[in-house]
Write a structure and sequence with these properties.
Structural class: mainly beta
Number of helices: 2
Order of helices and strands: HHEEEEEEEEEEEEEEEEEEEEEEEEEEEE
Shape: globular
Number of strands: 28
Oligomer: single chain
Helix content: under 10%
Largest sheet: 4 strands, antiparallel
Strand content: over 45%
Radius of gyration: 18 Å
Length: 353
C-alpha cells in the first residue's frame, strides 16, 4: 500500500509482521505477565517462520496469516474442533485472512494470476473474488460486519489508494473520503453501518482518522491534543472508535473516541514510548501494542476503563519476546502473535477480567 504520510507507514508496519522479520524489543516482563503466560494458547501456524491471528469472533473462531514451509503467506482459519487449516488463494500463491464475523464469514486478500484481490470465504465454499471498483488494479479487505458488509482498500492504476465498501447487492464501491482523498483506507465497520479508517489530506499529506456515517458522510475525528495525525483501526457496535494519534511530543499513542467525550489518550505501558489500539469489543475492552522508539514491535496490551492498560504477557519469559494483540471478542479473549524463542506464533491470550 502507498501512503503520503511516513507516519501512517510506521503504524502499518507496527501492526503487521513480514515474513522473516527478526526485529525485537528489549522489554522487562513483570511478575503479573509471568503468572499469566502459561495460559496463553499457541495455535502453532503452518510450518513457517511467522504467523499471526488477526481476528476472532464471539464463538472463538480465529483467522489470520501464516507463512508455510516455502515462505509463502497463507490465510488460515482455526477452530477448537477443526484445528488450523489453509484457506487457499484466488489462483496465486499468497493470501492473508484479516477478519471474521459472527456467522463465520471470513475476509482478507489473496493473490490471483495477475495481482491480489479482496476475498470473502464462507463455510464449505471456495474464496469469492470481490474484484475492484472500476479502474482498480488491486484490493484488500480489512473488516466485515455481522450483516456481511465488507470494507477495505483498493489501488488505482496511478498508484493512489482508496477506501471501499462492499455489499452483496451492490458489489464493491469507492468510499468517498471528501478532502482526505490523497490516499484513504477503510479499516472497520459495525452493525449499524458506521465505517472507520483514515485518509490523507490532499494538500499536506497528513493522515486523519475518519468516520463514515451510513449515508456516506465523512467526519474527521481529529487528533490528540497537540498532535497532527491520526488513524482509526476499529469501531464497536455501540460507536466506540479506537486507533492511534500523534501527540504534542511527536510520538504515537492509542486513543479511544466517543461522540460524547471525543478523543482520549490511553497512554502507554510502563517504560514504553508508543502505543496503538487495534480493536475494541462491544464491552469496551481495547487491545493493541505498546513499544519503544526504534522498533515497530512491542508488547500486547488490553485496556479497560476500570484497570487501564495491562501487559498480556508472552509465550516465553524473555526480555526480547515481542507480542501484539490484534482482535478481541465479547468474552474478552484476545488474539494476536507472540515470539516463542524461534518464531512468531499465532496465539490466543487469556481473558483478563
Amino acid at each position: 500500500m502507498r501512503f503520503t504520510s511516513d507516519w501512517v507507514l510506521t503504524l502499518l508496519i507496527g501492526t503487521t509482521l513480514a515474513a522473516g522479520c527478526g526485529d525485537r524489543i528489549t522489554t522487562p516482563i513483570g511478575a503479573d505477565s509471568l503468572q499469566r503466560q502459561a495460559t496463553i494458547r499457541d495455535l502453532v501456524g503452518l510450518g513457517g517462520y511467522w504467523a499471526m491471528a488477526e481476528g476472532v469472533n464471539d464463538f472463538g473462531r480465529v483467522v489470520g496469516a501464516a507463512s508455510d514451509n516455502r515462505g509463502r503467506s497463507r490465510a488460515f482459519s482455526w477452530s477448537e474442533l477443526g484445528g488450523i487449516r489453509d484457506l487457499g488463494t484466488l489462483g496465486g500463491e499468497f493470501a492473508a485472512a484479516t477478519a471474521i464475523n459472527s456467522t463465520s464469514q471470513i475476509v482478507g486478500w489473496a493473490t490471483t494470476t495477475d495481482g491480489s484481490h479482496a476475498f470473502l470465504a464462507t463455510a464449505g465454499q471456495s474464496m469469492q473474488d470481490l474484484g475492484t471498483p472500476s479502474g482498480g488494479i488491486a484490493s484488500w479487505a480489512n473488516a466485515i460486519g455481522d450483516d456481511g458488509t465488507i470494507v477495505g482498500g483498493w489501488r488505482r492504476a496511478d498508484g493512489a489508494s482508496r477506501a471501499f465498501i462492499w455489499t452483496a447487492s451492490k458489489g464493491m464501491r469507492d468510499l468517498v473520503a471528501g478532502p482526505f482523498a490523497g490516499d484513504a483506507e477503510a479499516t472497520g465497520v459495525n452493525s449499524v453501518g458506521q465505517v472507520v479508517g483514515f485518509g490523507a489530506d490532499a494538500e499536506t499529506g497528513e493522515a486523519h482518522a475518519l468516520l463514515w456515517t451510513p449515508n456516506g458522510d465523512v467526519q474527521d475525528l481529529g487528533a490528540l491534543p497537540g498532535g497532527a495525525e491520526g488513524v482509526a483501526w476499529s469501531i464497536s457496535n455501540n460507536g466506540i472508535v479506537v486507533g492511534a494519534s500523534t501527540t504534542r511530543g511527536g510520538t504515537q499513542h492509542a486513543f479511544r473516541w466517543t461522540p460524547e467525550a471525543g478523543m482520549t489518550d490511553l497512554g502507554v505501558l510502563p517504560g514504553m514510548d508508543w502505543s496503538v489500539a487495534n480493536d475494541v469489543s462491544d464491552k469496551g475492552e481495547i487491545v493493541g501494542s505498546s513499544g519503544r522508539n526504534g522498533s515497530p514491535l512491542g508488547r500486547a496490551f488490553i485496556w479497560s476503563g476500570r484497570d487501564g492498560m495491562r501487559d498480556l504477557g508472552a509465550l516465553i519469559a524473555s526480555e526480547s519476546a515481542a507480542t501484539g494483540a490484534l482482535s478481541v471478542n465479547w468474552s474478552g479473549n484476545v488474539v494476536g502473535f507472540s515470539w516463542n524463542g524461534s518464531s512468531y506464533r499465532p496465539v490466543i491470550f487469556p481473558a483478563v477480567r
